[in-house]
Amino acid sequence: MGQLGAFSKPVIQNNLVNGQSTYEWPDGTKYTGEFKDGQPHGKGTIVWTNGQTYTGDILHGQITGNGTMNYHGGHTYVGSFFNGNPHGQGTMQYANGSVFTGNWVNGERE
C-alpha cells in the first residue's frame, strides 16, 4: 500500500498552533482537523490531489491509530494504522468486491 503517513511540520494559518484548523501543502494535499504544537495530531481528514482520502487518528503528524482510507484505486480499508500503513486489525474491501478481514503488518495481510 505504500508509506502515506509522514508530514512535515506546517506553518499554521493565523498562528494557530493547537486546536482545529485546515492546512494545505504546496502539492495540494489538504488536512482538516486537530493540531498540536503545529502539526496534525488528533482526529482529522486528509485529501490528496489524486482523490485518495483518510479520516481518523493522526499521531504527531503520522497516520497512526484507527481510521478509514479510501484509496484512489477504488478499495477501502477500515481499521488500525501505523505510520500510514494498515497495521493491526482491519477490513479491506477491494475494488473488485472481495473483502479481507484480519490482521495486517506494515500494509500487508498476515
Briefly summarize what is shown:
By secondary structure, the protein is mostly beta strands.
Q: Helical element count?
A: 0
Q: How would you write the strand order of the largest sheet?
A: 1-2-3-4-5-6-7-8-9
Following the backbone from N to C, one meets helices and strands in this order, namely EEEEEEEEE
- Name the CATH superfamily classification: Histone H3 K4-specific methyltransferase SET7/9 N-terminal domain
| Total number of strands | 9
Q: Biggest β-sheet, characterized? A: 9 strands, antiparallel
CATH C-level: Mainly Beta
Pfam families: MORN
Keywords: Repeat
Account of the 3D structure:
With 110 residues, the chain is mainly beta. It has a single domain, classed as Single Sheet (Histone H3 K4-specific methyltransferase SET7/9 N-terminal domain), CATH 2.20.110. It is built from no helices and nine strands. The chain has strands spanning 19-24, 30-36, 39-47, 53-58, 65-70, 76-82, 85-93, 99-105, 108-109. A nine-stranded antiparallel beta sheet has the order 1-2-3-4-5-6-7-8-9, with no helix packed on it. A hairpin with a 6-residue loop joins strand 4 and strand 5. The radius of gyration is 14 Å and the shape is globular.
